[in-house]
């Protein structure tokens, strides 16, 4: 059995050193280090990695890191909600988001045209910019084809963007599909609807994208899930891998708890009852807010993998 | 200012009495009573009510209560995730779910063909029964039409079911649309995909359903949201009402917290920065698990509304 | 295995009916009903019941309910933190607390002499009244004796109060000891300190109270814990029963989670590793805010026990 | 307003670099960086620093880090619960704790004499060793004096230990008082009780320690609180500084939430209504498990302070 070790600071410590220290300290630090080990193992074993996140994470500066991870071949499939798509595009067009605070005067913000996401702020102008962009590209997409699966359409958009830090751009460049099972649940959906009003033969085919999800891996391949937060993004990754025999590796990072029975709080342990994760799988659940836990774990994993020449 | 009142038990108290007592006791009891007041006000003012819930709630016995609420005209629009649809159908076909426990042996459950959702259990047989049903009805739907919006398809299925306690059945009977923005994120999606393999002209049109969502209310109508849990269901109700000027009433019941910036934990206060909820709206956030908080609040609201002849 | 049953409302339902309904509905409702069963069993089996709560609960209207429970012989030992003592005394002197809201302007409240506890408010005047009372009674206590254990001192104070809804009053009247292991952690401590400055031989003997805790039950007696919230109150009840062989029954109601390793979030399952709760014990953990969960469960338990003639 | 910046990994990043990156990324990362700024400011301004933690943190490897912080003059006053004292002593005597897991078989652990604290394990032997030690030192303490305040007694014990990584040892060496307002709430309390049975004139004077708490700082001095977790330790620091005019700086790191009205979840914002924290104070609340958040923030603060020659 591993012994609990006292943590000690020395000047200028590296992230990897810190992670190792908290890995034998206790509680979630221990689980976080297990997450690092699970992620490095996924990569070493050549598993297909499904990375999922919720749209608030794309509101935050994790957005550029997700793009970097795709570039580094640390994600083979990306699954998210439509807010991520919208905000990635806004940022790719140069829009900037701001840091506010949790106890802001919300009525006052509304009057100033600021929209709050926790302690972050998005201006109305960013949505207007997004609208203009959608009005520009939808006709182009329509010209090419009348019927798109979601991931196909997102790939086309990614190819039109020109921002190294964009999730859509990197995904398109690196042949990583982006699945977004609830594509209409946001401003994106509204613009699709407006366009379809005048172009009834324009079809967004979510069922076809299910085929793409299934064929994104095979029974024979090893599969790993890194699910940040919950919701349909997490569930879709679980579903996609389950249909190919279940995941071999799974890291869930979440602030939700299992007592409500929600999928967002469902643990990797529960997943085994469904065969979602193989009985023998390496599986870790870390409770904590991902703007802290994910960079900490992933920076360490990247340091280790880089050392081994794997990225 | 309201005074904190000591609670006292007497024999055989009614739910409504309990709710009033905890309403001037403190903490979440106070918020729960505000939720009752907000819900009764929605109904009195003739607001269009958007009821949203996550699929684990349909796994639980809340499913029959949701059906009853639709029958009682307490929900004009229903929004949920696809697990709810699947499990409502399973139950309508006579499948039974069981109560287990949170610390079950998950590998053992998997071997026995039991799937765990918190402290509830679903047998593999229930999924097989669902599969058989889908294989039976999809050709019938296809015969009628080739292109369906999601809510239209769910309505057709509801009309074919024969269970007073079914959400789909009551929704269909009472002309209440059910929106499910991520319709493919479950077994339902898999069966749609299988069917489409041989019927390429079969289309599930999610964009058209956005039109249905927008036209489900108007700028002039009062609108209320009752969001149980978070995720796309909650977000979709907010979006649908926002596009018609924002909600006049909102009750959020959730176990999530705002510190992560997730939509699931977003409060009614934050919603005001977006105009999602009008600045002047009655809006309440109750933190707690809905299998307890929702029946407690809603039974009380129904008692009050029934007394007033409104249901 | 128990089957999940659909919940249905009918007019004028009783609390006990609601509780039974949610008891076979799912998630925390199931656990809450188990808590009812565990509590009724404690009483039927004649167990010594240790009731613990944190001081915010005495700020709320649960205070009068705790007093009622003592009167009904539903608590044989009470353990809490010193804020509960202070606020029980304030209320016994006629002070009233008010309901505010979580997102109040705290600087503004401070200027108005209002102190916030979640969504409750205590005026500075209540503390001044408490101070005057302490200055009045400490000399009286000193006259009688120079060295007090904490529970002994609280009993003396209880005998001097005259309020049926007071925890201290009912405890004193019914020979129920109140333990408060951190008696100096509040205004009470400050007044003890002021008094001791001029009366060096005045001693509050916390070690002697440990004897009282141990002798509050025996190895042979059955013992039950009802712990509301966490902290030293919960821990002290566990410790007191552990030293007499461990509890036979335990109900933990809390908003804390086990992932932090804190005692507040520690489950009844973890307690078994310590022998704090017997391996065979009936033990239930309910996650939720107690201003809702506790009255709901306890009112039901009282209805059942009253039916059986046990209270 | 600060702009949200995309995070980017590069090889071998330092903790301080990571912290700065997440500080302009969003959500709790932003708050964590504010915590770093608040801590460094406390030190720069020469504030008296009150460090509080709960006993599970001393079970973990944070124990050695707390000792190091005392040595580095980063804590002028320490407040904790008695479990910390006991476990610090056990470790000082060479006992080792182990890493287990949250879903362990607790009945099995009990049979093996292992006690679980989240995912950590303490053997029965460690408690036996502690007992032997207490039986050895209590007579020595008694020989010297008959009446001790708690902090005085802990100082005496610290002087007898010989472990650089011990909290008690470093506190004694560096004249840092350790307050433990509920000194009897643990095995320590039991041993005090056993000793007092035969030495009735042996007195642990908690009221006198209140004087020590008050005199641990003055109205004129700047005061800062670093509260890890909640409970009496956090409350006692707030109380001690409040009596001297309120804190100028406060960092609360916790997993608890304010919705329950508990002190553990009370925010620095609420504290302003009480004057616990000055209206103008720098105050930060970080939600997250401290085995991750605290080393991350404190290592960074130490790097910065070391750079400035302040430690």
Architecture blueprint of SSEs:
4 copies of one chain form a homotetramer.
Chain A: H1 15-23, H2 28-44, E1 48-53, H3 55-59, H4 62-71, E2 77-80, H5 82-92, E3 98-99, H6 106-111, E4 114-117, E5 120-123, H7 124-144, E6 147-149, H8 150-160, H9 167-173, E7 178-179, H10 187-198, E8 203-205, H11 206-214, E9 223-228, H12 231-242, E10 247-254, H13 268-273, E11 277-287, H14 290-307
Parallel strand pairs in A: 1-2, 1-9, 2-7, 6-8, 9-10, 10-11
Antiparallel strand pairs in A: 3-5, 4-5
Helix pairs in contact in A: 1-2, 2-14, 4-9, 5-7, 7-10, 8-9
Notes on the structure:
4 copies of one chain form a homotetramer. Chain A is an alpha/beta fold. Chain A has one domain: Deoxyhypusine Synthase, CATH 3.40.910. The first copy, chain A, is 50% helix and 17% strand. Chain A contains 14 helices and 11 strands. In chain A, helix 4 (62-71) runs parallel beside helix 9 (167-173) and helix 8 crosses helix 9 (167-173). Chain A starts with 14 loop residues before the first helix and ends with a helix.
């Amino acid at each position: 059995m591993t012994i609990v070790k006292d943590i000690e600071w020395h000047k200028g410590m590296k992230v990897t050193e810190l992670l190792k220290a908290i890995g034998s300290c206790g509680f979630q630090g221990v689980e976080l280090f297990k997450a690092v080990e699970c992620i490095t193992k996924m990569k070493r074993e050549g598993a297909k990695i499904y990375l999922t996140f919720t749209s608030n994470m794309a509101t935050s500066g994790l957005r550029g890191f997700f793009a970097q991870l795709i570039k580094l071949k640390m994600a083979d499939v990306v699954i998210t909600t439509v807010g991520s798509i919208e905000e990635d595009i806004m940022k790719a067009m140069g829009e900037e988001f701001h840091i506010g605070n949790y106890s802001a005067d919300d009525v006052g913000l509304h009057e100033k045209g600021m929209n709050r996401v926790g302690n972050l702020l998005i201006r109305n102008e960013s949505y207007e910019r997004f609208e203009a962009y959608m009005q520009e590209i939808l006709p182009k997409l329509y010209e090419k084809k009348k019927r798109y699966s979601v991931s196909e359409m997102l790939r086309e958009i990614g190819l039109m963007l020109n921002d190294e830090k964009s999730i859509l751009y990197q995904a398109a460049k690196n042949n990583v599909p982006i699945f977004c099972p609830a594509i209409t649940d946001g401003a994106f959906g509204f613009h699709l609807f407006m366009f379809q009003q005048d172009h009834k033969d324009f079809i967004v085919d979510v069922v076809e994208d299910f085929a793409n999800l299934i064929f994104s891996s095979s029974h024979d391949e090893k599969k790993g899930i890194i699910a940040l937060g919950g919701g349909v993004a997490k569930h879709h990754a679980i579903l996609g891998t389950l249909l190919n025999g279940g995941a071999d590796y799974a890291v869930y990072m979440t602030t939700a708890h299992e007592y409500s029975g929600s999928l967002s709080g469902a643990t990797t342990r529960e997943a085994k009852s469904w065969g979602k994760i193989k009985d023998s799988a390496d599986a870790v659940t870390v409770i904590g807010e991902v703007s802290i836990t994910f960079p900490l774990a992933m920076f360490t994993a990247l340091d280790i993998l880089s050392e081994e020449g794997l990225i």
